[in-house]
Amino acid sequence: MVKTALIVDDSLTFRQMVALALTDAQFAVLEAANGQEALDKLAGARVDIIISDVNMPVMDGLTFVKQARMRPQTKTTPILMLTTESQVEMKQQGKAAGATGWIVKPFKAAQLVQVVRDLLP
């Protein structure tokens, strides 16, 4: 069965880069430009993993993670933060919010795909 990933990033370029890496690895991909748009998409879709930036307009990534964790359908869904933020304090905030993992941009496509596969059952 094909796994579905939701990519949440305000940068169209980064969404496209992540989408390309994942579609090449046989994933279906949904995209959202911010946390609120992602929550709206989650209302009508089942996803196997979420990959989110931290710094976005409308709703930032950490707020999005907290909101997603309150929903029954995404309570245990792996959420990988893909961001330029590398400070230990920010990573701790991400973990406290419910993030499963953290990758700092720039990233290598093969590394991202491997982490995604490792996080999925």
TrEMBL record:
| Highest taxon of source | Bacteria
Repeat listed as a keyword: no
Keywords attached to this Swiss-Prot or TrEMBL record, sorted alphabetically, are: Phosphoprotein
**Coiled-coil region:** none
Domain Response regulatory per the UniProt entry, residue ranges: 4-120
Q: Which residues carry this modification: 4-aspartylphosphate?
A: D53
Q: Where is the signal peptide?
A: none
Protein name in the entry: Response regulator
